[in-house]
User: Fold this.
Amino acid sequence: MFFRMIWGAFTRQKRKMLMISLTIALGASLATAMLNVMLDVGDKINQELKTYGANITVVPKETAALQNLYELEDENSSSKAYLREDELGKIKTIFWAFNIVDFAPFIDTQVTLADGSAAKMVGTWFNHHMDLPTGESLDAGVQSLRSWWDVTSGTWLNEQSEGSENACMVGTQLAKQQGYKAGDTLTVSTQYGTKNLNIAGIFDAGGEEDSQIYSTLHTVQDLCDAKGYVSSIEVSALTTPDNELAAKAAKDPNSLTIAQYELWYCTAYVSSISYQIQEVITDSVASPVRQVAESEGAIMEKTELLMVLITILSLIGSALGITNLVTASVMERSQELGLMKALGATDGSITFLVLTEVMITAVIGGVIGYFMGFGFAQIIGHTVFSSAIEMKTMVIPLVAVLVALVTLVGSIPAINMLMRLRPAEVLHGR
Amino acid sequence: MSKRKMFFKMITASLMRRRSRMLVALLAIAVGGTILSGLITIYRDVPRQMGAQMRNYGANMIFVPGEADTKLSLELIDKAVSFIDPGNLIGVTPYRYETVRIHEQPVMVAATNFEGARATSPYWLIEGEWPSAKDEILVGQNIADTLGLKVGTTTAVVYTDAEDDSNTPNFGIDMKVSGILETGGSEEEYVYMSLEDMADLTGESADIERTGESGRIDLAELSISASGDVLSSYIEKIETNVPEVSPRLVKRVTASETAVLTKLQSLVLLVTIVVLLLTMICVATTMNAVVTERRKEIGLRKALGASDNSIVAEFMGEGLLLGLIGGILGVILGFAFAQYVSREVFSSSISFPALLVPVTIIVSILVTGLACYFPVRSATEVDPALVLKGE
Amino acid sequence: MSLLELHGISKIYGDLKALDNINFNIDNGEWVAIMGPSGSGKSTMMNIIGCMDKPTLGQVLLDGKDISKLTKKELTEIRRDKIGLIFQQFHLVNYLTAVENVMVAQYYHSIPDEQEALEALERVGLKERAYHLPSQLSGGEQQRVCIARALINHPEIVLADEPTGNLDEANENIVLDIFQQLHKEGTTLIVVTHDPEVGDVAQRVITLEHGKITRDALNESFGK
Assistant:
């Protein structure tokens, strides 16, 4: 009989039940969408912040300062320290390999141009394709790492094309000074040789790179007689904002307890990623670029906090909406429920009946709402970040608990009222 | 008693004496209004607030001399800076580069104004203290490692004039390392000192006192909290008015900042729209329930001879009044929410757009009105006889 | 010409004939009880006379005007101007005070007048309870408010549906006394009831069974 009553309530009060379900669905979808967006916004914003370029630099252990100092005395000193080119792929094998978005090696040297003036020439990856030992493949290089560069004429140097070994890109200022245009050939020479390079494009970087020449790694290695070596690596990694632990570890990882060390090592702090890179690249020092790492942390924290607060507000909103409707709909049925009391139903059995009905509606509404919220989250993800929002499984129990709680709380005033109902009054229409 | 008075009496009685129910509806509308006004305020303020956060990235504009082989002076920089809205300006830092010797090694020195550097380069991590007294220097991490300098070490800094080949004795001044600078970037390869100490070191102090500051600044870094368009307009103004100064954007920072801010703002916008849409629907269903609940009363009024229009008018009057009160509450709560968020997240206060007050109230009234209208209309279709029978 | 004339009234719901060819007239000032067991068609009759429903067949003349062909809106106007309704379940607006409930009827009819409404309450002996909410009034008091509301616009017909159905004997007698008073003042009263005590005090009793009039007679004990 209990089920017949419930069934009757659903089939014969379709409109009303539909309305409650709809409100719960709306509330649940709001909660789902907001929670998902909130949980994923950190990653998304992090990805966006990658446009600021690398947040970790790797240099040889023999300090960079030394070479700089020597350079002041002798531009063509050969006593430089280098990193090994064949180890570059290892960066994608560290614990947090998945968080390494992009990286590029650099090697630079002073070259003499045809008119005798000197310029700095940098060898790097542009859009280097590499197959990793893990079976994955990766495209990395300055084309993505220097997203703010404008190629004002010509195109990006394409490493995969024929003759890329003899191609280069020139900064706007140097191009203006020397009258270079895309398609021209320029001659560079050092004590180790001379090369004729085809200018693939002119770029505007808005910085000191504007007076430099960029070419492939191997071209520049030949020019400074450092085959198989690079002088620095820039790495762009997705990181978690630093906290106290990370700050302590960055100073000296050995000062941590084993548990702290494991927590630190297994969290994507910029310091732990740097530490892991140092482990795989021989004789290297990897350090966070504070200008980028610091700001990233601040912005991500702010964005996440902002979203948390907005989410809380919208959760309150949807909770109120659901509570309202549940209360209203139960109160509306006071007559029917009063009748049941007159027929001898106990408070407990009526409460149980009402709660069962409401919970069934809530389950239906909640499930529909979850999928609607999924849709809303994806709309937000695609419109704003042009990528899907990852649906976290933890949102499902969160939304379920929320809907259950809110519906129950919403039923309290109504049930309280039911307890006080006196059947005679209800039936006599007071 | 006039008809109008009775109308208002009925409406207010309904609102006042059915307090708990109306409170529930009012709460729903107020939350709707809060979300509307609060989120829109935040949405409008996000670029400004986040823009300020973005200034953590450091300078987004630099001044270099307008012509090759010339230098800037503090006066010129001040003149150029006067074209920038002081409200947007976060910091200006002049830099003068010279080569000195420490421990007989050549080292690049950047002479600057530390007050400015703190503002334009908030990401600098100093081990020790910022230089505050005379003859205190800040040493880049790499230099410190190479030369074995520690915080508190006093070392002789010797200036050699590169263009001066005569054998005039070099000036040497003992300076104290007040801090070691860590940035992970090229800043670690410099030694920083104040412009005054530099002038002492080069022996220009006496000249300056006699003839005033001559131009010896190589470049100035500026951190300006403004969008790309505004920055470009500043550049144009400075270029035409102060040709000796050539302002340039630090593209790496400005381009990325614009990209990230645009994303952030559209994120908040979209979230606002979704939240608003759903909240409005929630308000509508609540009002719908509130009206549907009173079908019996509507039937009674019809039996007493009320025309459909007068019933609609009464219920709408009630709904609109609720919308008005809810809207006003919403404006207040929304402002409080936006202010709270701003304090918590950005640690600064928020400006509340005055236009949002009428907009929120009108939207609240409209939504409540519409949400009441349809169920009331459909309730008036009901046969009074059926309602009164309690069916 | 009679105040109310019913000519060949039938109301058919699918296969069921709720009313089957009903004919009677009611004159001005009459006090008529319509009686019959449940399902006899009393309520349907009440709704048709009260301008809340329309007959399937036949003609209803009120003041010589055929109301069976009017639109809903026109019916509303007639109901407002000519009929005062009293319900078994009182149907007061629960958030308005007694006097305000009376004023609601004035409001829809013409212009609310608190003084007049208070006088109407005084007639039913409720002047001192005028500013109480329905929830603070007893069942009998609520029914008296309902009567005051029905009378406030001086209707041509007062139509009561089981007016004593929810009342105890003491209150029933109070209500019937008020009806006596109204009748003396010349008000036309139609009372639909299944309570013989209520029927006994009426001037004329029409008995319905299965949608047909089985008896229509003056009450011999009336006035005694």
The CA atoms of residues 176 and 193 of chain A lie 25 Å apart. Chain A has 14 helices and 14 strands. Chain A touches chain B through 79 residues (CB under 8 Å). Chain A has two domains: 2-45+297-427, 55-288.
